[in-house]
Amino acid sequence: MLRKEDLQMKLVLMEMMGTPCVRRRNVNCNKFCFMKMLAWNIWGADKREAKEYLWSLVKIHKIDIIFLAGTHMLEDENKLFLRKMRRNWDGEFVNSMGRGGGMMMFWKKENVNLIIVHKDDQSINALVNMKKGKHCLVSEIYASTDERRRALWKRLSQLEIPDIPWIVGGYELYM
């Protein structure tokens, strides 16, 4: 049984410049947000309960982009997962190393044109072009500690970033 405290997820509603859009009474958040992202340290993406809960959140919150960290899936499992996704979604993945790690980013094709500009074992970086005409770069991080994290930040600093908003985030933080 999947417990709510095991979910550890973050729903991020983004305004044009990438700052959180806060839901308030009598305020339609969809009026201010141009993109909705869900980031989840899922601890195994192939669990039936997790997939059911994920798609219920997508339906309720009208999510455009999903980032799953800690998928714990190898290449064949990732390919099967992506093949079974709903028709109007596309995705990209980074295989786990053994049974740890792994990431997936997928997006709703009818709302988002997403181009992966770089991926490695600690990040997926994508240029996002929303059908509403807004653009940004999204870097989703699932990083190890210390020395390897320094290498990640060096790689990120070397990305050729156009003059558009850049959303960097992952499990604990978005900026």
CATH structural architecture: 4-Layer Sandwich
Largest sheet: 5 strands, mixed
Average of the residue pLDDT scores: 75
- The structural class is alpha+beta
Q: What is the string of SSEs from the N terminus onward?
A: EHEHEHEEEEEHE
Strand order of the largest sheet: 1-2-3-5-4
In total, the number of domains comes to 1
Uncertain stretches: 1-32
InterPro entries: Endo/exonu/phosph_ase_sf
Task: Spell out the blueprint of helices and strands.
Blueprint: E1 9-14, H1 29-32, E2 35-41, H2 48-61, E3 65-69, H3 75-83, E4 89-94, E5 103-108, E6 112-120, E7 123-130, E8 135-141, H4 147-157, E9 166-170
Parallel strand pairs: 2-3, 8-9
Antiparallel strand pairs: 1-2, 3-5, 4-5, 6-7, 7-8
